[in-house]
Amino acid sequence: MRPSHPELPPASRRERRREREERSHTPHPTRARAQRLVVGALTLLAGAGLGWLASDATKEDRFREMSNIAEALMEEEGGAAWPPRQLEGTLDAGTTRPSDMGPPEDAGPPLPTLPPSRPGFQVRQERRSGLYLLEAVIGDADFDDPLPLVVVLHGRGDRAHVPGGPFLGLTHPVRVVVPQAPEPLGEGWQWLPVRVGDGLVDRLSSTLFETADDLARFIRELQDARHTQGRAIVTGFSQGGLLTLTLAVHHDDVVGYAIPLASWLPPPLEPSYLRRDREVSPIRSMHGTADPIIPIDPTNALFGRLQEIGFDVELVQVPGVEHTMNGDMDALFHEWLEESVCWMVRDEVCEEAAHERGLALRDVPIESDAGADALDAGLDDAALDAATDAAPSRAGTALDAGAHDAGIPDAGPPPPPRPPLPRSSPLPEALRMPDDALDRRLPR
Length: 444
Description:
Blueprint: H1 10-25, H2 29-55, H3 59-75, H4 85-93, E1 121-128, E2 131-138, E3 149-153, E4 174-179, E5 183-185, E6 188-190, H5 201-225, E7 232-237, H6 239-250, E8 255-261, E9 283-288, H7 296-308, E10 313-318, H8 327-344, H9 348-362, H10 382-389, H11 437-440
Parallel strand pairs: 3-4, 3-7, 7-8, 8-9, 9-10
Antiparallel strand pairs: 1-2, 2-4, 5-6
Helix pairs in contact: 3-4, 5-6, 8-9
């Protein structure tokens, strides 16, 4: 017979039941210590990862986009097409870094004092997509009228300027937008944190591609906000020329005509083939043969390769001119601008006349001395380039000290002083624009 136990009060029974439950849920001391170590390690790794991403809010988006692009490139099968179809879709649909590249809102608009508007010339300034910009309507038109859009990209160390000079006297009214680069450099601004002459080809290529992508989005927003006739006409000098050429090659959906001046493309951004269903934007360029900042030989070879694969390109080589523009070059630039504007408004008579005048100018020797009518709107930044090349950066070190362009393939030490070059040098036949080029262009 089992011994009887005194009946416990209900409160005591509940306490003993709670104690048994607590003992059943208490892990072994060694197991508990291991769990704490694992949780602590995971927490530390997560915190480090979040801190790394917080240091640059664009890292996650950039790496996701790079992964998408790499996957598209690996999956793309052979074929004479550029960009690859999957890559194009990835770039259009992929996540990109925010377009608000500008300085803080409290920095104040670092733009020049605007001249008063007058008949045939109206100008205003604003901030759009994180960039300060100047907008001028030149000709008999208002800001709200549908107009051809010209986007001017200034060079390294320069700033946005009110357009003038060769932008004046066009047959048709035009809207000229001059955005200011977001990153301060001395008393000016720059689009890219790395120079062609720094020898950092990979970094130059990646930042150039990303900045061009931001500017393509900026141009699309402009076209949505303004009544625009045709695709944008884009031009720029030096660093602005590199961006212009990158936009023309990789974003022809927004660029209808490109005039890159003193420009080049790093090898990773050079297309190797052309997809036939893409609209080919005419690319017209001028480059001094004595340019010490961006030597002409790699640019000449680049344009030859672009023409071989089907791009509509022309490179005018100006004997004896360094990293600058002059009055004769301005005149040819004006005719290219006139031709592009007439093309956008579908004025074939005006377009053909400008084309013929441009051909006539190319048959006349272009003087190598800088004229008084230097290209306006911040395209000619040669003096600023020379000043900022050797200027100390914010870290206190020389940016380049005028070194030769190590970023261009096979570039060696600075060349010895050259003898005077001939005042005229015929353009190689391979780089001349065919006479029937106007008839073979795709729709605007």
